[in-house]
Amino acid sequence: MSRATDLPESVINCCVYTQQGQRIDIALDAISDVLARDDGSFIWVGLYQPSEEILDKMQEEFHLHDLAIEDAQLAHQRPKVEAYGNSLFIAAQTVQRVNEQIVYGETLAFLGPRYLLTVRHNAALSYAPARTRVEREPELLALGPSYGLYAILDFIVDNYLPIVRHFHDVLLQLEKDIFSEDYRRDIITRLYELKRELTEMRQRMAPMQDVVMQLSRSTSPLIPDEVKLYFRDVHDHAVRVNDSIDAMRDLLGTAMSVNQSLVTLAQGEVVKKLAGWAALLAVPTLVASWYGMNFTNMPELHGRHSYFAMIAVVAVACIVLYRYLKKVHWL
Known about the structure:
There is one protein chain. By secondary structure, the chain is α+β, with helices and mostly antiparallel strands. Among the domains are: 136 residues, CorA soluble domain-like (Beta Polymerase, domain 2, 2-Layer Sandwich), CATH 3.30.460.20; 61 residues, Methane Monooxygenase Hydroxylase, Chain G, domain 1. 58% of the residues lie in helices and 16% in strands. The protein has 10 helices and 7 strands. Strands 2-1-3-7-6-5-4 form a 7-stranded mixed beta sheet. The relative contact order is 0.08.
C-alpha cells in the first residue's frame, strides 16, 4: 500500500473510500471539502506520533473536541470510549515484541459519521494489514468508518495472541527447569519477571473488554447494528486473551511456590546428609576423647590387644550407624 508523497511524514495515510469501496488518496486540505459532499463516502486518516501542528490541522478539518485533541497529544490514556457530540473517542493499548522485549504503545481513534482518524504512539504496529483486509471487502466497507474501527481493534487484540503464546512456551520451559536436579537462581528470577510482564499485560488488556463491549452495545448512530456483531467477535477475542493471561498467572504463582518448596526440600536433604556424616564422625571422636584423658586406671589401657580391639569396636559402630543412616535416607 503506497503512501501519498505530498503528505507530512507523520501522516501515513489520508484517503477517501467511496460507497463502492474505491480508494482515493487526498491531501489534508481536501478533507473538509470531501466531508461537505453528501455522497456516502468516508475519510480514513492514519497518523503516527503526529506533531501538535498536524493534530491542530485534524481538529480544524474534522471539528474535533478540544479535550479529545488534548488526549491525543498527551497520549498515555487508559483504554476507554468517550462521546464528544457526534463523534466517539476511543483509546486502546497496543503491544509487540522488539528484540525479545515486550513494549507497549497506544492507539487513539476518532470516529465520526463520515470519518475515521487513528493516531499511533510509541510501539504500535502499522495498520496497513487491517486496511488491506478492509479494502478486500467493499460490501462491508460500505457500512462506513465504524467497520474500519472494528478492523483496527480486531488487529490490536489479535496481536496480543502470539505474545501470549510466547509466554506460554516460556512457562513450559521454565516448568521443566524447575524439576531439574540442579537449583538455579535464574529460574526464580525469570518466573518473577514473567509474572510481572503478564500482570502488566493484563492491566493494559483487561479494560479492552469494556471498550469493545461498550461499542458492541452502543446506541450511537455511528455504529450500525451490522457492525456491532463484529465488535462482539472482538470482545470474544479479548476475553480469550484475558482468560489465557489469568490462567498463566495462576500457573506462575503455583510454579513459584513449587520451586520454593523444592529448594527447601533440597536444603533439607543437604542438612540431613551433613547431620549423618557428623554422627559418623562423632563415634570415633567420642572414643578418642575418652582415651585421650590423662587417667592412670582406665579399662584396657595396659592390655596387649586393647588398641586393635578399640579400633574394631569403633569400626563396627561406624558401619552399623552408616547402614542405619543409609536405610533412613540420611546418607
